[in-house]
Specification:
Layout: H1 3-15, H2 18-25, H3 29-43, E1 48-51, E2 54-57, H4 59-81, E3 88-93, H5 95-99, H6 101-112, E4 117-122, H7 125-134, E5 139-142, E6 151-166, E7 179-182, H8 188-201, E8 207-210, H9 213-221, E9 227-230, E10 240-244, E11 250-258, H10 264-275
Parallel strand pairs: 3-4, 3-5, 7-8
Antiparallel strand pairs: 1-2, 5-11, 6-9, 6-10, 6-11
């Protein structure tokens, strides 16, 4: 008695049809019928009653189904116990970082470690920090200061910031335009831009909010206002121009992990980004 024959028998028993069982298992009907016939020959009994609506179990068939359920369950459990689960790297990032630099790093990492599953989560700075502290994330990129007793910074880099404006706008007109920013609480780009406008104009700017980087860039290209973003997230898009944000400078981005973390997958990721920090 082979395990395949038991699986076919069980499928026919639950489907109450040879044709439906064959279709579900991807076999031709004659193959399923042959396996059932072999099983009945080996056991010396009929397992099914054939009728116009399909098949139904005999008393011996019902007894065998009980055994088949137990045997197949044991076989599946035994197989699963030898399957080693693949490691997963859970990374948190802001929308801006996950839009450009992070995919480049993950592409390199996946080529070096194809056996590792990757999961990227985007959220606010506060939630990312807390998720690492709670163990829901292995690491997270943040561009705000943090002070948490269980976390440490293991890598950092500078993001060069630029003003983005509609085409043909003059530098002197930038501070007086509406600002197009994210609606995410605590976004450092929004905070820096608002502060810069107030410092240069002594007034609160008009604000237009979008929930994606793509939406912000599109709104600027349509002449709705100006924004502040990292240089490397900007596509080759028509309708916008950029100016160095010299008065604002760059923004420090850090990779946070739990202190004294002993996770080979995370350590491999840190080594990789340190070797490709120019992305």
């Amino acid at each position: 008695m082979e395990s395949l024959e038991l699986r076919i028998f069980r499928e026919v028993a639950y489907e109450k049809s040879v044709s439906r069982a064959a279709e579900k298992m991807g076999y031709v009907q004659s193959n399923v019928t042959a396996h059932i016939h072999n099983l009945e020959e080996e056991l010396g009994t009929e397992l099914f009653i054939r009728h116009s609506k399909g098949v139904s179990l005999t008393d011996d068939g019902k007894q065998l189904l009980s055994y088949a359920d137990q045997v197949i369950s044991l076989l599946d459990n035994a197989k699963n116990s030898f399957i080693k689960s693949l490691p997963t790297l859970r990374i948190g990032a802001t929308q801006t970082l996950s839009a450009h630099r992070l995919p480049l790093w993950l592409s390199v990492f996946k080529k070096q470690y194809p056996q590792v599953n990757l999961s990227v989560f985007t959220d606010t700075q506060i939630n990312l920090i807390q998720s690492v502290a709670d163990g829901d994330l292995d690491c997270a990129f943040v561009n705000s200061e943090f002070n948490h007793p269980r976390l440490e910074s293991v890598f950092s880099f500078q993001e060069e910031l630029v003003f983005i404006t509609p085409q043909n706008m003059k530098v002197g007109d930038i501070p007086y335009q509406p600002i197009v920013v994210t609606n995410i609480c605590g976004c450092p780009y929004r905070n820096l831009l608002e502060t810069w406008v107030i410092r240069n104009t002594n007034r609160q700017p008009d604000i237009i909010q979008y929930d994606t980087v793509e939406g912000i860039i599109k709104a600027v290209s349509l002449g709705m206002g100006i924004s502040l973003l990292p240089q490397n997230v900007l596509p080759e898009a028509s309708g916008i121009q950029t100016f160095p944000a010299k008065d604002i400078g760059s923004l420090n981005v850090q990779l946070l992990t739990s202190k004294n973390l002993n996770n080979p997958t995370v350590n491999s990721f840190i080594d990789m980004i340190q070797n490709h920090s120019d992305y």
